[in-house]
Amino acid sequence: MTTLALNNVRPYGEDVKHLRIDVTEGRIAAIADEPFGPADADAVIDGGGNVLLPGLVDMHVHLREPGREDTETIATGSDAAAKGGFTAVFTMANTNPVIDQPFLAEAVWEKGQAYGKCDVYPVGSITQGLRGEQLTEIGLMARSGVRMFSDDGRCVNDPQLMRRAIEYAKAHDVVLAQHAEDHRLTAGAAAHEGEQAERLGLRGWPRVAEESIVARDAIMTRDYGGRYHLCHASTEGTVELLRFAKAQGINVTAEVTPHHLMLTDEKLATYDGVFRVNPPLREARDAEALKQALLDGTVDAVATDHAPHGSEDKCVEFENAKPGMLGLETSLAVVHRVFVEPGLADWRFVAKVMSERPAEIMRLEDQGRPIEVGEPANLVLVDTQSPWTARGAEMASKASNTPYEGIEFTARVVGTWLRGTQTFGLKD
Ligand code: DOR
Ligand code: ZN
C-alpha cells in the first residue's frame, strides 16, 4: 500500500486540515488536525494553506478526437483538464466521425483511461451523423456506458424527432442535452442580435432562437418525461423559462459557461474572431441574469464548452471565424473572479456548481463527493495568493484560442489528484 500525506490544506476554504490518502485504493484514509510526517506516509506534500475542493466535473467539452487531432486530442485535452482542476469531463459527439455508435464511444473512454489524467466520458449523438434526420441507437450506446446524448453544435430542431429522442432517453434513463438554437432564425448569424451587431454590421443571432427551443423542450419534457439538460444557457429569457419549468416540477437541468458569465458582446468591437462563440456573447443584463440564476440554483452547473480551434479558423474575418473558445484552464479562475472575489459566493458554492451538481446530474458516483474519510481522493488545490496572467501560448491545450488573453486572475490550480494519483501540479 502506498500513502500520500497532503498537509496544510483548507477544505472548501475553511479550517486548515491534513489529509492522508491511500493511493493504492485511491481514497481519503484519514483527516487530522496535526500534520502527517514522513513516518505516516510514503510521500508528504505541503499544501501551503491553499483551498481544497473536490475534483471538478465538466459536463461539456470538445476534445476533437477523432478527426481534428491537430487542434486537440484526448491526451492534450486531458492535460488541459487536469491543469484546470478537472477529474472528469464529458466530450461532445461532434467529432469526425461523429460519436453515433457504441464502438466509437468505447474508444473515447478507453483512450482517456489509458492516458489516465482525467475520466473522459463520451457523449453520444442524438441523430446519426448529427444530420438531424434519424435517431441513433440510443439504447445500444446506453448499454455500452454512454450517459449523455447530444447533437451539440447543432440543435435537434425537428419537434417529432425531439419527441422520440425524449421518449428513448427516458426509456434508457440517460440525459438528453440540447443545444437550443432554432437554425431557421440564426442562418448567417455571427453575433448576438442587438446594438453591437448593428454597429459592427454583423448578422444577429436573436435570443428567441434559443428561448423558443427551451420553451418547447420544457413542455415536451413535462409531457414525455426523462432527464433533459440545457447546454450553455445564454439569455435572460432562458433563465425565466427555466425558473418556470422548475417551479412546475419539470425535470430540467441547465449549465452556463464561464464566458457567458464574465464576457459580453462589447468584446466584439475589434472584430477579433476569438470572441466568436455559439451561442454568442450577449449583453450585460443576460450575464447578470445568468449569475443570479446560478446563485439561486435555477441554473445548476458551470460547464466550459471548451472548444479548441486552430489559428487558421480563428485569426480570420469575424464572420468566417469558427465559433468556440478554450475554457478548461481558466474556468475556475473565472468563477472565482465573478462570484468569490466580489463576495457573492464562497468556495462551497464553487464546489457545488463545478463538481457536486454536475456529478449528481450525470450520476457519477465517485465524483463531486464530500472531502471526508472513505471518499475517493478526487481533489483540486487552489492558490489565491499568486496572481497569474492567462496566455493562450502557455496552455496545455493544443489550441490557444482563449478569450482571456492577458487578463490577470487571482485563483490558480496548483494540484489535481485523480483517485489519489497526482495528475497536475505540486510535487513532494
Ligand atoms: O461555440 C461553439 N463551439 N458552440 C458549439 O455549440 C460547438 C462548439 C464547437 O464544436 O466548436
Ligand atoms: Zn459545445
TrEMBL record:
One Pfam annotation reads DHOase
Where Zn(2+) 2 binds, per the record, is at: D152, H179, H232
Q: What is its EC number?
A: 3.5.2.3
Name under which the protein is recorded: Dihydroorotase
Q: What region holds the Dihydroorotase catalytic domain?
A: 49-235
Q: Which reaction does it catalyse?
A: (S)-dihydroorotate + H2O = N-carbamoyl-L-aspartate + H(+)
Cofactors that this protein relies on: Zn(2+)
Organism domain of life:
Bacteria
Q: What is the originating organism of this protein?
A: Corynebacterium jeddahense
For this UniProt entry, the molecular function terms from Gene Ontology, in alphabetical order, are: dihydroorotase activity
- What's the gene? pyrC
Taxonomic lineage of the native organism: Bacteria, Bacillati, Actinomycetota, Actinomycetes, Mycobacteriales
